[in-house]
Amino acid sequence: MGLKFEDVLIESLPYIRDFSESVMVIKIGGNAMMGPEAAANLMDEIVQDIVLLHFVGIKTIVVHGGGPEINEKMEKMGKTPKFIGGLRVTDDDTLEIATMVLVGNINTKMVSLINKYGGKGVGLNGVDANLIQAKKKKSQKVVVDGNEEDVDIGWVGETEIINPKILRMMIENGYIPVISPVAAEKKGHMLNINADTVAGDVAAALGAKKLIMMTDISGVLRDVKDKNSRISKIEVSEIDKMIEDEIITGGMIPKIRGAEVAVRSGVEGVHIINGSTPHSLLLELFTDIGVGTMIYKKEDEKEEE
Amino acid sequence: MGLKFEDVLIESLPYIRDFSESVMVIKIGGNAMMGPEAAANLMDEIVQDIVLLHFVGIKTIVVHGGGPEINEKMEKMGKTPKFIGGLRVTDDDTLEIATMVLVGNINTKMVSLINKYGGKGVGLNGVDANLIQAKKKKSQKVVVDGNEEDVDIGWVGETEIINPKILRMMIENGYIPVISPVAAEKKGHMLNINADTVAGDVAAALGAKKLIMMTDISGVLRDVKDKNSRISKIEVSEIDKMIEDEIITGGMIPKIRGAEVAVRSGVEGVHIINGSTPHSLLLELFTDIGVGTMIYKKEDEKEEE
Amino acid sequence: MGLKFEDVLIESLPYIRDFSESVMVIKIGGNAMMGPEAAANLMDEIVQDIVLLHFVGIKTIVVHGGGPEINEKMEKMGKTPKFIGGLRVTDDDTLEIATMVLVGNINTKMVSLINKYGGKGVGLNGVDANLIQAKKKKSQKVVVDGNEEDVDIGWVGETEIINPKILRMMIENGYIPVISPVAAEKKGHMLNINADTVAGDVAAALGAKKLIMMTDISGVLRDVKDKNSRISKIEVSEIDKMIEDEIITGGMIPKIRGAEVAVRSGVEGVHIINGSTPHSLLLELFTDIGVGTMIYKKEDEKEEE
Amino acid sequence: MGLKFEDVLIESLPYIRDFSESVMVIKIGGNAMMGPEAAANLMDEIVQDIVLLHFVGIKTIVVHGGGPEINEKMEKMGKTPKFIGGLRVTDDDTLEIATMVLVGNINTKMVSLINKYGGKGVGLNGVDANLIQAKKKKSQKVVVDGNEEDVDIGWVGETEIINPKILRMMIENGYIPVISPVAAEKKGHMLNINADTVAGDVAAALGAKKLIMMTDISGVLRDVKDKNSRISKIEVSEIDKMIEDEIITGGMIPKIRGAEVAVRSGVEGVHIINGSTPHSLLLELFTDIGVGTMIYKKEDEKEEE
Amino acid sequence: MGLKFEDVLIESLPYIRDFSESVMVIKIGGNAMMGPEAAANLMDEIVQDIVLLHFVGIKTIVVHGGGPEINEKMEKMGKTPKFIGGLRVTDDDTLEIATMVLVGNINTKMVSLINKYGGKGVGLNGVDANLIQAKKKKSQKVVVDGNEEDVDIGWVGETEIINPKILRMMIENGYIPVISPVAAEKKGHMLNINADTVAGDVAAALGAKKLIMMTDISGVLRDVKDKNSRISKIEVSEIDKMIEDEIITGGMIPKIRGAEVAVRSGVEGVHIINGSTPHSLLLELFTDIGVGTMIYKKEDEKEEE
Amino acid sequence: MGLKFEDVLIESLPYIRDFSESVMVIKIGGNAMMGPEAAANLMDEIVQDIVLLHFVGIKTIVVHGGGPEINEKMEKMGKTPKFIGGLRVTDDDTLEIATMVLVGNINTKMVSLINKYGGKGVGLNGVDANLIQAKKKKSQKVVVDGNEEDVDIGWVGETEIINPKILRMMIENGYIPVISPVAAEKKGHMLNINADTVAGDVAAALGAKKLIMMTDISGVLRDVKDKNSRISKIEVSEIDKMIEDEIITGGMIPKIRGAEVAVRSGVEGVHIINGSTPHSLLLELFTDIGVGTMIYKKEDEKEEE
């Protein structure tokens, strides 16, 4: 294996060089990584990859979700998780459980793992230093018995303002911030917010080079049935047509739309990769072929604006 | 009241001057402040006082406990809290609940309150940036059926190393760190540790000017039955005699011993005050009379060492 | 008094928070404060208030006058003070005496007082580091025997350029600059300048948040005979009308005009207060009611320009 | 003159190089420079030389005296200057006059002159930023009618503590501090102190490379009657013998003793030069021959200590 | 000589003051300075002058040529130097020799001389930190046997991009950079470039106050035969007419055109002086009369642009 | 290869982590790398590896030799290289050629290569900023016709003082310094010095973590005839015995002795590796097995001193 060792390092040199000192936001979430059926050491491997990014000079910020673990804990406490339009209906109890699971359990474990592999993680959530100021989401239109109704989904928020100063201070000082998707609204009430959105907003606010969405699927497939039909790059102007043509469908639509927003806000590339593929993070970033789908924006179009 | 307004400000001037730029660690905890029977707006008032300290130039660090709330949550989940020698017996479930309550619930709420009153709070726990490295406590000797037995009290830790760098970075940049008393041991397993000890260790590591222990009692009383017999200052060398004479007794002994350690490590004064007395923090710090008991060390003795 | 103590501190918190790190210029002058009939400890109290402002995080700059003391000294030396149009006729001897009194006597005493109360004062005048470059004022029109004549009032100057760099260096390093109103013109000849103007120019050059003019009167009264008719706020656009309506009259006109200039140059508020009212400085800044008159500019008007 | 121009610059290069970035304290005083009989443009020339030192990279601090001008002003006001043992007897009036003359007149003029020649002077006295903390001198033994008596000489002080921080801030930022020899004692009362002593104390506190005493005489002469018998260098260990041998006599003794103290505190060389010799400052510093007497300490002796 | 010594220093004060902290680029080259017939100690004297500039606060950058020495070395190695249109035809061998002579011989000697006189020189060439990125010059039109032909002159380059960051780092840290006129093109091949051009480009990139071209001639003469007809200042708008009128002719034309470019790019003045005149650098910079020709641009014209 | 790619990166993580921010000095030299018979792209590969070290956070300093190229150039110019005791006899011509080849040719090419692969190289030699102050070596004892004679070997020097300040400035600012082994003695005469020694001296002066000697041989072999008998680690105290036992012999002795000096001066490890083995630098640093011999010092022994 000797000979190959150095070839790999040398092959990754141009990428390492290009990414040096740049900011990357990494979203971790979903059943494949955090659910009860996730592979035993998967999270260990992902964190190792993240720490490696840190040591080759990338300023890394982690945003995590935690849906599966919140559900699990709720059920233990005799509550049934409820969703409307993909959003968790969040009453007082649910909010308290979600916050405790996200901030007190998942975040702390992830920081601990980062430390174990030699990084210096620091847990944050939207409340810390007013990192995220949110507002309560409006009622959602739901069809009930054939009639559209307005339903209040409770303590679910959306980002109003990002104050990235504390993130800058941390990445400049060599820390790896790990962000839980909870925030407070103006009067101080806690809100549960979508982790994908938080990741996109943070990436945009910092002018990150890349946002990597580690999900349960391997990017966009031209033919859902053909695992080899993965589309490795999508230019933002193609998105509308691809949705119309039903290449992008279902749960992938909001992810791609979020990626579009981030790219239009200045993030150089948003990568959607399968977190359960071993070391997908390194393969996507440090090889030409990649393992997921990158959403980007053509240079000339950028300059036109 | 007009006239009095300015007198108060002017009276506090020498204290404000003396405390300017100094570091103070404030421990908040206990039933009176955090228990179900605590006065409605008490925590709001305490946080307002803390933010005021910040604005008059004091570098403030908060350490919180959470025993009453952990008990409450455990009972909700059908578990009975169990203590040996004052220490919580901490099995896996208890550890998970304690961590979620401390880090995910109490800490986040406290940070949110600090922000509400104009400070910039940041939640931390011992895992963040390896702030506290702990080790599992040895088994405790317990008398069971008249026999002394060694009982493993589970995931309870004690501080090994404090890495105060992240605290320094935060207070230098105008943030108010809020610390939960959980930490990891070397291999990464989480441990629950005593908040009083954490507060003392942090104060010692930073060379804080003051450590203020906000408790359920108004300092040391010469005669427990006489509320007016409060001793306002105790020199560390007097402690042994006072314990022998049974002036300091029961649960006050470990608090005073902790204070002694902090003072001998360089903290200028440790103040034990009653957190449920309105604005006891300001009264103790900014008036001559004070409302609690201060443990200190004579100057000349310091220089001898 | 115990209970009230903390209420006062807490009431002032929003102001302390709002003023934290902001720059304020305080003009001290007039018979009530500096004349022979001034109350015995008045200057001590004023300086205590100023030092308190410093310790609650306000970057404080003092500008002092000294008319009464110059007159007193001149008379001791057998010279009769002479004024034309409110300006001191300043021949060579008068200039020398004025400079010695302002720089060598009043300024030094004020710095010494600031130090006594725990601040770090530094005396300055317009010559230091070219802080103020002035030019000689033109001759004044005076009516003599019914004829208007041009009279040279001697070594009286007006500000040409402010070089605020040394002030910035000092306030950033925790010093309280105390400025005497003397300056040099281009060729180096000393000039006596009006302290009100110096205060306004310095406030404008630094973009101060507030300029506080401590005078002999309690702001603008709607009815001069009624002490309770004080107008607490005047928007700059109202000034012309108020002069026309003879609400603002006499010696108050130049003060208000000076305030107008400062506010139009970006100072957020100019406060005219009565320096002989005990602690008027604190009452005006830290209570809602205030004790003087504030000149300010409406936000929207600002943005229009 | 063309050819000579560049030779001079080149000849001074090794000195310029050696003095670059070093701190020098220059004491200006005495009848020849400041008295009524001083040459018309002498002070202009001296200040030009000082500004030149600044521009060739020397961090220059000026300390001035003012005896002749204080006497003059006192006489104008009908007071007779009085001295005991070379020290001015300083009652309340004398103190006020001395302070006004030194701080308000001489200092301001000197700063103005420095500015005129392109430097950035800033006037200071012992009170500014607590630069000099002094204490009142004890009574002096005086022989009156053949009996030795203790006489209180009034508000005359001697240095207790130098706080050189403000001087460092100023010279690091390109300013030339000009110091008047007045200070306050602990309780804030002003004191008049000896300018030679202030210069020596400041030089020692800053670890200055050189202290230059510009006086009325051209250093130490081996034979007082022979102007050509000047001694250009005196090693500190020779001083006792030279006083015993009456080579150093009269008013030169305290100057040489002061120089000895400064040199023993770490100042590399103290130069006593005649300020009324045109450009004596430059000639002493930038030529091998020099024009005065330098007191220094042998290297090896330094290392022994 | 005593009296004159200080006069010279004082006369140069306004220049020293004006040039303090400013950046100057000094081009050294030509037969008179570097050729075999150059006066024995000339280079020593020039370097001494440069170090003097450094010590009076000027940030000095040296650019050197080396034509005569390259020719000499080529001839030693049996190669005949060849020029087309004033440019050296540079084949592979010539490039290697030129680079070795410029970077390895002349530059190193010059740095060593700077150190000898107390400066801290650092040798650089266009390759270091990508200081100069060049491109190969196009073929030159040459008349051969009456026909114009395109001739490739080999590895001769012209500046594309200057990266002055390393120069700024060095002059801010007290070093004197010495630049050899070689650079690499994009793919890394070395190129020989014209030293006059490099000097002009560097001066423009740094916004230098002055560019001093030390050449073999004493500036522009109104009448070539009359050494006393030197024109001391030329405003850029006069250049066209002076070339038309044949006052500026021959090899002086490209030098003046280069100066014009530098001045139009923001350099305050370009001075063409005779390097073989002893201390011409000091005489030109520090006396009113000067010894060369300065090209400058009128203020008002500057503002019009 | 996919799977292996990420394994390699992950395997190197602990090394990357451990070396992050540390200083390494890399010596390149010898026939295998720089001689005419060196493999075509070898130097490109070595430089790529060095740039990779830079991008994974190692502060890299290169020292190069150049014996083979100096010999080649001398022979071209008709001079015969001559050695005594392994040292090049260096007359005036040889010194000039050596300097030109090292500084003007090899160094410039190496810097250009570093730039080509994305680093920012800067060429230096001992003269730059007085990096190395050397002194001429004493005559060498040589046996001529059976008699020991003292032979002056000319302009060969040895290090007296290292001034590493400029190296620190460069590595802190992201540059890769490349050092040629020439220096000047006190009076400014150039000297040729041994590159191995320079590398060791620089590593010691900077307290480098590692010094890597890239040579023509693969470290120390227990049995010279058996390539597989390489000794991977030698503790400094074993060296004497290994020389005695003739395990270390011939030209390896001075290399090992140099390594010993570096290690005893605080360098953590000196690695002797074969530069002609592809990517030996990466294999030695980032794999457990390594490819050369490391000289180190036991921890406890270190603390004893």
UniProtKB/TrEMBL annotation, chains A, B, C, D, E, F:
Q: Which GO terms describe its cellular component?
A: cytoplasm
* Biological processes per GO annotation: L-arginine biosynthetic process via ornithine
Aspartate/glutamate/uridylate kinase domain ranges (all copies): 23-274
Localisation: Cytoplasm
Q: What is its EC number?
A: 2.7.2.8
Q: Where is this site: Transition state stabilizer?
A: 27, 255
Q: What is this protein called?
A: Acetylglutamate kinase
Catalytic reactions of this protein: N-acetyl-L-glutamate + ATP = N-acetyl-L-glutamyl 5-phosphate + ADP
For this chain, the family text in UniProt reads: Belongs to the acetylglutamate kinase family. ArgB subfamily.
Q: Which residues bind substrate?
A: 66-67, 88, 192
Q: In which pathway does it act?
A: Amino-acid biosynthesis; L-arginine biosynthesis; N(2)-acetyl-L-ornithine from L-glutamate: step 2/4
UniProt KW keywords: Amino-acid biosynthesis, Arginine biosynthesis, ATP-binding, Cytoplasm, Kinase, Nucleotide-binding, Transferase
Q: What is its main location?
A: cytoplasm
The gene name on file is: argB_1
**In which organism is this protein found?**
Methanolapillus millepedarum
Q: What is the lineage of its organism?
A: Archaea, Methanobacteriati, Methanobacteriota, Stenosarchaea group, Methanomicrobia
**GO molecular function terms listed in the Swiss-Prot or TrEMBL record:** acetylglutamate kinase activity; ATP binding
Q: What PANTHER family does this protein map onto?
A: N-ACETYLGLUTAMATE SYNTHASE, N-ACETYLGLUTAMATE SYNTHASE, MITOCHONDRIAL
Look up keyword Transmembrane helix and say if it applies.
Answer: no
Q: Which InterPro entries match?
A: AceGlu_kinase-like_sf, AcgluKinase_fam, ArgB, Asp/Glu/Uridylate_kinase, Glu/AcGlu_kinase, NAGK-C
Physiological role:
Catalyzes the ATP-dependent phosphorylation of N-acetyl-L-glutamate.
Highest taxon, organism lineage: Archaea
